[in-house]
Write a structure and sequence with these properties.
It holds the Pfam family DUF883. The protein has 3 helices and no strands. By secondary structure, the chain is an all-alpha fold.
Length: about 110
């Protein structure tokens, strides 16, 4: 799951860089000659393709995280329904740890 978050952050960073590149290309286009404009069109097309690709990858990563989260939630619910006493014991233990932590911090 951390890997998906890292991948998402990386894709967002790539997307921001590509959008920045597109803005720079637009500003340079006004000052360029005809030959340069043709080259810039090719570069812009490549940058737009890369942006579309990164958005597609980001969408895939989001879908993957969404499916995994849903599966984990269902598995947790099913386990809690099948083992209510175990679930209650874990919940009470977690509350005890939280209370102990808060009491220790209060003493500092």
């Amino acid at each position: 799951m951390a890997n998906s978050a890292l991948r998402k952050a990386s894709l967002q960073s790539m997307e921001a860089e590509i959008e920045s590149l597109l803005k720079s290309l637009e500003s340079l286009k006004d000052d360029a000659s005809d030959e340069s404009r043709r080259t810039l069109k090719v570069l812009k097309g490549n940058a737009e393709n890369a942006l579309r690709h990164s958005r597609h990858l980001l969408s895939d990563a989001y879908e993957e995280v969404k499916v995994k989260t849903r599966e984990t939630g269902i598995a947790t619910r099913d386990y809690a329904q099948e083992h209510p006493w175990t679930t209650a014991g874990v919940a009470v233990g977690a509350l005890g740890l939280l209370a102990a932590y808060l009491m220790c911090r209060r003493g500092d």
